[in-house]
Amino acid sequence: MSGQSSGGKKETIAVSLTNYLDSGCIVAGASGLTLWAEHFGLNSFAVGLLGALSANAFGAAVGALVGGRLADKFGRKFIYTYNLLVYMFGALFIIFAMNFPMLLAGFLIMGLSVGAGVPASWSYIAEMAHPDSRAHNIGISQLAWSLGPAIIFTLGVILAPLGLLGNRLLFVSLVIVAIVAWLLQRQLEESKDWEEENARQAAATEKSHPYKELFSNVVNRKSIAFLVGVYLFWNLVAGAMGFFMPFVYETVGGLTNSQANMLQAAMWIFTSLGSYFGFAKLGDKVDHRKFYFIGAVMAAASWVVLTFVGMSWLGLWVFVILWGISAGIGAQAFYALWASELFPTKFRGGAQGVMFFLVRGSCGIWSIVFPMILANLGFTVAGTVMIGLLLVSLVIGTVWTPRTRGKTLEQITQERYGNNEEALIDSELSQGQEVK
C-alpha cells in the first residue's frame, strides 16, 4: 500500500514540522548556551549535562525507544495526537526557567518528545510515499530539519541584543510552531501499511513480541549493525556540533555570540540547499553508493580544514560550506531513508527506536566527554577525533550501501525475508542472508 495519497506530499509537510522542532530546540539551546552558563554560573560538567539530557542525546534516546514501540503498537497517528503537547510543556519550563534544575527539566522533557516523534515520522513518510519519490519525501523532511537551525540561529542573531531574554523568546517561537504542527498532524489519516499489518497481527493465532522477532533474525541484526554504524559515528560529530559549535567558535575562535550564531545560520542554509537541491532532487535518481560517498568525503574534508587550517574567516567559511552541503546529502538523510526501508511494517518504528536510542545515547556520553577533551587536550585533538569518526561512517556506508532505490517497501521486505511471513522468525531461512 505504499505510495498512497498522491505520494504523501501533504502528509510529508505536516510530519516534517516535527523535524523542524527537533533541530530547532537543539540549536535554540545551543545558541544561548554561553548565556545560560553565565547566568547560572555553570561549570563544564553542567554544560555537558544540558547537552546530554536534551533532544541532542539521552532525552531523545529514551523518547525514541518508547515512541518507536508505541508507534508500532498503537499507530503512527497515536504519536502525533499527544507528542507535541509534551514538547510544548517542556518548552515552557525553559521559557520560565528560574534555576538550573528547571532549565535541565525543560531540556529533558523536550528531548523525550523529540525522540518519541522521530521513528513515527520517518516510518510514516516512507509508508505514504510512492517508491519513486521516497527519497524525495525524506529529503523534504530533512529540509525542514535544516530550516529549523537556519531560522533559529537567524532569530538568535536578531534577538542577541536582548541577551538571555532573546534566547527565551526563541523557545516561544518553537511553541508557536508546535501548536500549528499539532493542529495539522491531528488531521492526518493513519498509515494504511500500519492498519493492514495491525489487522494481520490481530488475526494471527500465534503471537510473539516484535522485539523478539527483531533481534532473533540475522537479517535484522545485520541491518541494525549497518545503520547504527552509518549514523552513530556521523552523529557523534553532528551532535556535538549542533549543541557545542557556537561555544567552540566563541571559546576557541574568539568570535562573539552574534558572529557564532551567524556562522551557524549560514551553515544550516547550506544544509537546506543540500537537502532540497541535493537529496530531494537526486535521491531517487542517482546511484546511492556514489551519492553517499560524495557527502561523506565532504564532511570529513570540512573537519580537516577546521582542525588543521584554523579558524581564520576563510577557513571558517570553507568549513561552513563543505559541512553544510554534506549534512544535507549525507548520513542522516540516508539513515532516515534506509531505516524506514530495511525493516517490515510490524517493527519498523520499534527498530528505529532501538537504533535511535543507541545513537543518541552514545551522543549523550560524548556530550559530557567532548567539552572535557576540548578544555584539557585542546581543539586539535578534539578535531582529529572528529575526522576519525567521520571516516568510519564513510567506510561503512559506502561499502555496504543497500540496493533499495525505486522499490516498494513490500518488494524490499520480500527480497530480504522471502514471501512467507514466517520467514521473519525462521532462523534456518535467515541464516546467511545479507543486506541487499
Automatic annotation (TrEMBL):
The keyword Transcription regulation does not apply. InterPro entries: MFS, MFS_dom, MFS_trans_sf, Sugar_transporter_CS. Residues 1-405 form the Major facilitator superfamily (MFS) profile domain. The chain crosses the membrane at residues 45-66, 78-98, 104-126, 138-159, 165-184, 224-249, 261-279, 291-310, 316-338, 350-373, 379-400. It is a multi-pass membrane protein. Gene3D superfamilies: MFS general substrate transporter like domains (1.20.1250.20). Its main location: membrane. It comes from Enterococcus hulanensis. It is found in: Cell membrane. It comes from the Bacteria. PROSITE patterns: MFS, SUGAR_TRANSPORT_2. This is MFS transporter. Keywords: Membrane, Transmembrane, Transmembrane helix, Transport.
